[in-house]
Design goal:
2 helices, single chain, 2 domains, 10 strands, OB fold (Dihydrolipoamide Acetyltransferase, E2P), alpha+beta
């Protein structure tokens, strides 16, 4: 992909209603997001124009594509990253999760829904803040999936 095409893509993304865009092409990966995040995603291209240019050039020249999956919200509601306000979070960045482990809870209409990891892997980033309102299919966590995933 040519640099001018990338610039056009980023401008079109900025002008659109789309919240996230992920593009994987051979060894090139581009991730753009308008979502508020507590941690800077490894593959996130900054919204500041000079940082965008630098990041994109680095990705084209240096970065191999990372194989990661997102755990997404199955419903609209308020996400809770810990069981209660005084407790430790269900998971932290760098934690290993197994398929079926609870990673957070989403409250919708006074009903609490446990969100479980659909695969084994390592949490690489947390894409939401505690008590944030989330939408259906919004990424909650990025997970680098284990090679021997069952």
């Amino acid at each position: 992909m040519e640099f001018k095409e990338i610039q056009t893509l980023m401008q079109n993304f900025e002008d659109s209603d789309i919240r996230e865009l992920e593009l994987n092409q051979d060894s090139f990966q581009l991730y753009l997001s308008k979502n508020k995040q507590t941690h800077k995603h490894e593959d996130l291209v900054s919204t500041e124009r000079t940082e965008q240019t630098t990041s994109v050039k680095k990705k084209i020249n240096e970065q191999p594509a990372l194989l990661s999956q997102n755990i997404t919200a199955p419903l609209v509601g308020t996400v809770y990253l810990q069981p209660n306000p005084d407790a430790d979070p269900y998971v932290k960045s760098g934690d290993h999760v197994k398929k079926g482990d609870v990673v957070c809870v989403i409250e919708a209409m006074k009903m609490m829904t446990e969100i479980k990891s659909p695969f084994n892997g390592i949490i690489t980033s947390i894409c939401v803040s505690n008590e944030e309102l989330v939408e259906v299919e919004q990424p909650l966590f990025s997970v680098q999936e284990d090679k021997d995933n069952d």
